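INFO worker-7 received task bundle
INFO bundle size: 2
INFO processing item 0
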Amino acid sequence: MSLRYATLAPGDPAPWFRQRSTSNPDYGFDTVAGRYVVLCFFGSAADPAAQAALRAVQAHRALLDDTRACFFGVSVDPADAENGQVQESMPGIRFFWDFDCAVSRLYGAVAADTAGGGTTISMRRFWLLLDPALRIVSSIAFASDGSDGNAVFEQLRCLLHPGRVAAEVPVPVLWLPNVFEPGLCRTLIAAYEEHGGAESGFMRDVDGKTKLIHDPWHKRRRDFTVEDPATIKVIQNRILRRIKPEIRKVHFFDATRMERYLVACYRAEDGGHFRPHRDNTTKGTAHRRFAVSINLNDDFEGGDLSFPEFGPREFRPPLGGAVVFSCSLMHAVSPVTQGRRFAFLPFLYDEAAAKLRAANQHFLGAGYEYIP
């Protein structure tokens, strides 16, 4: 019986997955976008061909700085985790423990019906070089003479810096000035300052539940939720008149719902920031379709919005202006270095997504507030 393998070729998007790694029990592979990625399906470090591949990684260590490029090795052998022969080296070198072969099946390193791991399974060993948007640049099979490792790193060496490559690629966002008038911006900032903001977290699926997580390394921000009915009505009016038509025109999407009336504050004294993330990757946030970022002031430094998959370009809408983008895009907010950045940050979705949100309500864990 012939074996069936997944097939991937240059130009294909690399499949996203979550798997245990050398430093994270649930590593989301989509979060590595924004740099070149060398992915190596070596199977087991006990194999001589795998040992040659790992020596090639060390020989080209200087290329793997987590800024321009990084490396992930994929092991299917539990012994690699037990004997310490395979270890991550930061920055730039990490490993996935793919002992159930979930990732190897997804990428075609083992047959689709392969179960379990170890040194006895039939495996296709190869390298993949991915671009900053996690698309496949090349696939290089292991060679009998061990030349494959040098080949992939020489190809990496010849590629331009991710920022230069992506500089000419348009970022798929809407840039909308004058969404909020200055008076409304002042009203929202005054409401924040009157009530104060609470330390803000982010959502992550843990043990099957979407829970609120606090990690100052990943995110540092303080938030206030607007509850005044008159102010909410004004906000809704501006979104309906000035953002909804633009989303429909460009994306042919009818935004009918808005989640949260949130005034956020990134403060220089806290080093306010938000590291690269996506807004719809948990069960509790899967309904989100578009994110809106409206600047309420302009007297601050830093705090700019970027989209690492498309290069280093940063966005700073003017006072009252908005950047609108798909919640599936990776984005980040750089540290505020002077002053405070105030922003209004809602999510927009439609009736179909509202049904998904209601269906996923039972997945919400501690700290997640459901607002119908």
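INFO item 0 finished
INFO processing item 1
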Amino acid sequence: MLQHEEQSEPQPITITPEWERKLNSQKDAEIYEVVEEIGATGQNAVEPLLALLQIEAKKAKQQRTMINWIFGGAGLFLLSMFLLKGLKGGDWDFPNLWFLFYFGGSGAAYAYTNKQKNVTRALARFDDVRTVGAFVEALEFPDKDIVAMAEQKLTELLPRLQASDALLLNKEQREILNRQLVKSDGLIVKAILSAYEQVGDSAAIPAVSKLARGEGKGGKMPLNVSAAIACLQFLEIRAKQQEQAQTLLRASESTATAPETLLRPAHATAETQPETLLRPSQS
């Protein structure tokens, strides 16, 4: 496995058309060639691969949105036709409508690009905590092999996260991890809880609380429950600290002195007559 090498000033690198072609390939050899060729330039391949994966994730999201709109519009059209048919005394055709939404939802769920899967598989060659977000997203890929690979990588990487790594996980990725806590019973549950002790936030409290109460698949394992109870203490302390910080911030904003209350020089003063001023006595 390739090890991550720290670089003080990593140089930007562009994915060439040839690398793009290989990353779209179904052959593992060509996909891994990209990693080796990028490495031969003196660069760690993690950054450019993550950048490419981000672009592909955006395309896939747009594709899923389009599929949802198409099938949603078609579903509304058919529903209106069935309603009209029902008003005219015809029979409702629920099975056809159900199949439409079923296949529409399935199409949206499987709208992941081939390049997304290939880049994720290429990233698995690196032992780099910066890849955690990519593997979290891969947990919901409709590919059992990719999911198994992502779980294995996250089991290794998540416990290594430090508090300074909180930005490696965005809101959507944290939501995926929270869902995993409830529906999974594998080693990844313990890895997520270990990471949350360092980078968890208040949004994780509901899922961790369920696990601490023994709910969900993971809650059937005593080790997961005890780990969730310990993690919950960290999350609650961090949530209180964040709340106190927000309270202090709001207080400092509300006590700002209004401009009209500040001392200002007088606009006009009475002129002092010379004869009223003190003078030295004359001998």
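INFO item 1 finished
INFO post-check item 1: Strands lie at 2-3, 126-127.
INFO post-check item 1: The two ends are 105 Å apart (CA to CA).
INFO worker-7 idle
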